[in-house]
Design brief:
about 625 residues; extended; four-stranded antiparallel sheet
Length: about 625
C-alpha cells in the first residue's frame, strides 16, 4: 500500500488538497488551534490579568533578583509564596496606574532629568563640562536589556505612580497628644519590687524514681527526637585552588613584564596651557564663526611669538579658572578633559602649539608645556605583583578546563574523593552532624541548599557515591560524599541517659518554683504589710536593670488605676517572678533634638498606616479581584 502511495504521490497530494481546503472554507479555522487561551488570575478596573501576564512578570522579577544576588537559591524564587508576591505587586501596579490615569498625573521633563541625575550609576557618567556621556549611558541601560527611550519611559511611569501614594504620605503629621502618648509608651518608668523564685533553689527537693523518669520520658518523647544527620566530606575547586597548581616560568614573567611595564607603572600625565574663546554649541552659526575667527587671530599671534602665550592667555582667554594663571591647567591624565581637547594634547610634542581645537565649550589654542612619564619599576620590584596578576589571568583561562576535569573525576571515580583531591592538590574537609537544611551558623558549601540536596539524595545516601560537581558561585565548584548516615529517630531511655534525669529535675523544679511563687503572691496580696520583697527600683523600656524581658513587659503592662498592682510571671525553666508595681515614676525629660527625631519617626509610622488604608480604598474603587488563593 505504501509503495502505491509513493508511486502516485502527486495524485494523492491533489486529492488531499481537494478534501481539506473546502472544509476550511465551510467550517472555518478555530483560532484556538493556533493560540492558547490564558486563564484570568486577577481583575483590576475591569481589565484582566492573565496567567501569561503573571508568568511574564514573575520571570522578569526572578531575573532581577538573580542579577542582584547570583547565589540565591532558585527554589526560593519558584515557591508559591514568591509567585503570589509577584501577583500582588502586579495588581498594585495596575491599581496605581488606574489611579494615576484618573488623576491625570504625569512626570514633567525637569523631574525626570533631576531623578536621572540622582541615580549614582548615571551621575558617574557626567563629563567635566556637566554633560552626559551618551554612549556610556546607552551601554549602561543596554546591560539591563533596555534602550534609553524605554528606560526613561519606565522611569516616567514609576514617578507618576509614586505620586499616587506620595500625595497621602506627604500630608501626614503627628499631634502633640499623639506624640505624648507614644513617648509615654516607650519612656514611661514605674517603681517596682520583684521577688524571684529560681529553679536552682528547688532542684535539691527533686529526687526522681525510675518510674517517674519512665513516665516523664513517655510523656515527652518529642524532646528526645533526633533529626537525620550525616558525616560528610567534600572537596572544593575555586580559582585559588587552580592558581596553586600553576607554575610560572621565568620567560613568562619577563615577557609579561615587558608587555605591561608601562601599564603597571601608571598612566602618563601631561601639562598644558590653553586660550579659550567661549562658543556654546547652540549659538547661531554666525556667532560661532566670529568666535572661531578670533581664536584663529590669537593663534597667529602666539605662533609668531610663542613666549607670549601666557600673556595672551591672561588678556584674552575666557576660561576664568585658568586665565589668571596664563592658561595653565597643570598636569592631567587621560579622560580628565573633554575628548577633542584630550586627543589634541596627547598627540602633541612638548613645546608644540596646536591648531584651533573645537569642543563643547568653544575654541581652544593649546600649548603643551610638560610630559610626566612615570618611573617604570624594575623587574625584581614588580615580581610579586607580576606573579599574582599572571597567575590570576592563567587561572581564569584554565578554570573551565579544570572544572570539566574535576566534574569528570568525581563522577568516574565515584567511590572516593582522594583521587580528585590528589590530582588538584585539594584538601578534603570532614564534617559531622550535617543536616538536610543549612545550620544557622553554617558557612561555605554546607550553607548551600543545592549542595545539601545532592548530599542527601537517594544515590548519595544509599550507595555512598560522590555527588556531582555543584556550582556554588561562578568559578567555584564542590563535590562531596556521605561517610555515614543516621536517619531521624527517637532516642531510647538508655541512649538519653543522664540527660533524662536533668530534664526531669529541671521540669519539676520549675513546677515547684511556680507553685511557691503563686502561693506567695496570693498571700502578699491579702496581707501587703507581710510581703518580703527586695528594695524598690525604677524600670522602663530604656532602663531594664538586667530584668528578664518577661518581667519588664509585665511590669509595664500592669494596670495602674488601682496601685499597688500585683503581677505573676512564669519564666518557664528559669522559675517564677512576683512583681509589685508601687507607682508611676516621672518620665525622663527629652531634649528638643530627641523629641524632633521621635516626632519624625511617629509621623512616618502614621504615614505608613494612612498609605496602606488609602491603597485598600483604591482597591475597592477599582474593583480588584484576585482569583488565585493565597498560599497557606
Amino acid at each position: 500500500m505504501f509503495e502505491s502511495i509513493r508511486k502516485h504521490s502527486k495524485f494523492v497530494m491533489i486529492l488531499l488538497f481537494l478534501l481539506i481546503i473546502p472544509s476550511f472554507i465551510f467550517v472555518g479555522v478555530n483560532q484556538n488551534y493556533f493560540t492558547e487561551s490564558s486563564q484570568t488570575v486577577a481583575r483590576v478596573d475591569g481589565h484582566d490579568i492573565t496567567q501569561q501576564d503573571w508568568d511574564n512578570a514573575h520571570r522578569a522579577e526572578s531575573d532581577r533578583l538573580r542579577a542582584q544576588n547570583p547565589t540565591m537559591d532558585a527554589k526560593l524564587l519558584d515557591s508559591p509564596e514568591a509567585r503570589y508576591t509577584t501577583l500582588e505587586k502586579l495588581v498594585r501596579d495596575r491599581v496605581l496606574a488606574a489611579a494615576a490615569a484618573k488623576m491625570h498625573l504625569a512626570t514633567p521633563d525637569a523631574q525626570l532629568v533631576r531623578t536621572l541625575r540622582e541615580i549614582p550609576a548615571i551621575a558617574s557618567l557626567q563629563k567635566p563640562d556637566g554633560s552626559l556621556d551618551a554612549e556610556a549611558y546607552k551601554a549602561l541601560v543596554g546591560s539591563q536589556g533596555m534602550t534609553p527611550e524605554g528606560f526613561e519611559a519606565n522611569l516616567r511611569r514609576e514617578l507618576a505612580l509614586n505620586q499616587v501614594l506620595g500625595s497621602v504620605s506627604s500630608t501626614s503629621f503627628t499631634t502633640a497628644a499623639q506624640l505624648q502618648q507614644a513617648m509615654d509608651a516607650l519612656y514611661q518608668r514605674r517603681e517596682i519590687q520583684v521577688a524571684r523564685f529560681d529553679v536552682s533553689a528547688f532542684a535539691g527537693k527533686v529526687q526522681p524514681t525510675e518510674a517517674e523518669l519512665k513516665a516523664f520520658y513517655e510523656a515527652h518523647t518529642n524532646q528526645f527526637k533526633q533529626p537525620e544527620a550525616a558525616t560528610v566530606e567534600y572537596v572544593q575547586l575555586d580559582l585559588a585552588a587552580v592558581q596553586q597548581g600553576i607554575v610560572l616560568s621565568e620567560d613568562d614573567l619577563r615577557t609579561y613584564y615587558k608587555e605591561n611595564a608601562a601599564r603597571l607603572a601608571g598612566p602618563e600625565e601631561r601639562r598644558a596651557s590653553h586660550i579659550l574663546i567661549n562658543a556654546a554649541k547652540d549659538l547661531p552659526a554666525a556667532e560661532r564663526e566670529k568666535a572661531k575667527a578670533k581664536a584663529e587671530q590669537l593663534l597667529a599671534q602666539v605662533r609668531k611669538d610663542p613666549k607670549s602665550f601666557a600673556q595672551v592667555a591672561k588678556a584674552n582667554s575666557q576660561d576664568p579658572g585658568s586665565a589668571a594663571n596664563g592658561g595653565d591647567l597643570g598636569y592631567f591624565g587621560r579622560e580628565a578633559m573633554v575628548k577633542p581637547f584630550e586627543e589634541a594634547v596627547f598627540k602633541m610634542k612638548q613645546g608644540d602649539i596646536s591648531d584651533v581645537v573645537e569642543s563643547d565649550f568653544g575654541f581652544h589654542i593649546i600649548e603643551l608645556t610638560g610630559i610626566k612619564q612615570p618611573k617604570v619599576p624594575s623587574f625584581e620590584e614588580m615580581r610579586p605583583k607580576l606573579e599574582a596578576d599572571l597567575k590570576q589571568q592563567q587561572a581564569q583561562r584554565k578554570f573551565a578546563e579544570a572544572a570539566e576535569a574535576f566534574s569528570n573525576a568525581v563522577y568516574e571515580q565515584s567511590e572516593s574523593l582522594k583521587p580528585v583531591a590528589e590530582k588538584f592538590k585539594l584538601s578534603i574537609h570532614k564534617i559531622e552532624n550535617v543536616t538536610r537544611e543549612p545550620a544557622p551558623d553554617a558557612q561555605g558549601p554546607l550553607a548551600n541548599k543545592r549542595f545539601l540536596e545532592a548530599l542527601f539524595s537517594a544515590d548519595s545516601l544509599e550507595n555512598k557515591r560522590n555527588t556531582d560537581a555543584v556550582e556554588l558561585a561562578p568559578s567555584n565548584l564542590v563535590a562531596g560524599r556521605v561517610l555515614s548516615y543516621a536517619p531521624a529517630h527517637t532516642q531510647s531511655m538508655d541512649e538519653v541517659g543522664e540527660k533524662l534525669k536533668q530534664l526531669y529535675v529541671a521540669h519539676q523544679s520549675a513546677e515547684l518554683a511556680r507553685q511557691e511563687g503563686k502561693a506567695k503572691m496570693a498571700e502578699w496580696k491579702a496581707k501587703p504589710e507581710a510581703a518580703q520583697l527586695p528594695a524598690a527600683v525604677e524600670v522602663g523600656r530604656d532602663q531594664a536593670r538586667d530584668l528578664p524581658r518577661e518581667v519588664l513587659d509585665a511590669a509595664l503592662r500592669a494596670p495602674t488605676n488601682d496601685l499597688p498592682a500585683w503581677e505573676g510571671v512564669d519564666l518557664g525553666n528559669a522559675g517564677y517572678a512576683v512583681i509589685k508595681v508601687n507607682r508611676i515614676a516621672q518620665r525622663p525629660a527629652q531634649d528638643a533634638q530627641v523629641l524632633e527625631q521621635q516626632k519624625a519617626q511617629f509621623t512616618q509610622w502614621s504615614s505608613m498606616a494612612e498609605v496602606m488604608a488609602y491603597y485598600e480604598q483604591l482597591k475597592k474603587t477599582f474593583k480588584v479581584q484576585i482569583k488565585v488563593p493565597r498560599p497557606q
